[in-house]
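>> received
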Amino acid sequence: MMRRYRLPGAATPPEDNAMADGQDGPAPPPDHDLARAVEALIAELVEHQERRLVALGQRLHPGLARDDLHGFDDVPALARDPQFVYEDGHYAGLLGAQAALRALLRRRAESSPPGPEGRRDAIFSGPDECAR
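>> returned
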């Protein structure tokens, strides 16, 4: 059986009324669990795309370091390769999605009421959060 989840605040289509009433199917996971799952998935996609980009870059320009990806316009072999530019665009899009998700989660955590110790319940657990 395929699990179906509704996003919080989303309108319930008429055919999903039984599920919304809790009669059919599992209950949707708490926001916290869903946010962590989406965050982990995007992090995995970013990591995979970065590995692809590094491998392609090293094939086109042997000795390319991971840090060289951020200024690849300085490496003519990479800047004029359409596949590399495409893969870099894909990587940039994933990084943008990751940044947007982190910003959303941070805003939600900051707007949540403080807990018993005066701390807010942050969903985000990425590297930038450790610096706070």
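>> Helices lie at 17-20, 31-60, 76-79, 82-111, 127-130.
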